[in-house]
Amino acid sequence: MTSKILFVCLGNICRSPLAEGIFIQHCQAGGLEGRYLADSAGIGDWHIGHPPDSRAIATAQKRGVHLPSICRQVKADDFQVFDFILAMDRSNHRDLLDRCPKSLRGKIQLMREYDLGQDQGLDVPDPYYGGPADFDAVFEILHRCCRRFLDALETSPLTKPR
Ligand code: 4NP
Q: How far apart are CA 150 and CA 94, in angstroms?
């Protein structure tokens, strides 16, 4: 069975495309490509149809990570189609909960819940108004979170990972 994972941020050009690419790389490294389908989407519609921000691409390229995303907005049937929906920050998390039918809200989680122990809050910081160092920092956060999330899925694939 394939588990479907959707990564969500505000614009779908910086954080969630990075999370998607990093998650795919972790899957490939573990020979798990067939087990998981990853995608990303945005709360907003400003960049629909665009590739990721060039600074996200540059950060990812330095680490050998490909970003396949083309920007799209979250849509109603995402809540049906995907098994796990990972929000990059608490604002995205609230917006997703608002849009999601009550019965499906259990699919929505905060990405940074998989970064516990770092004690740096629950948001993956938005690097859009920052510089290359901010994108590198986001990459490191997401690398840790995706690793831990995938490990949790592999440990208990049928339940909500924690
Ligand atoms: P992201 O960053 O949510 O990580 O993709 C942003 C990208 C674009 C905008 C805001 C955040 N924007 O306002 O256009």
A: 23
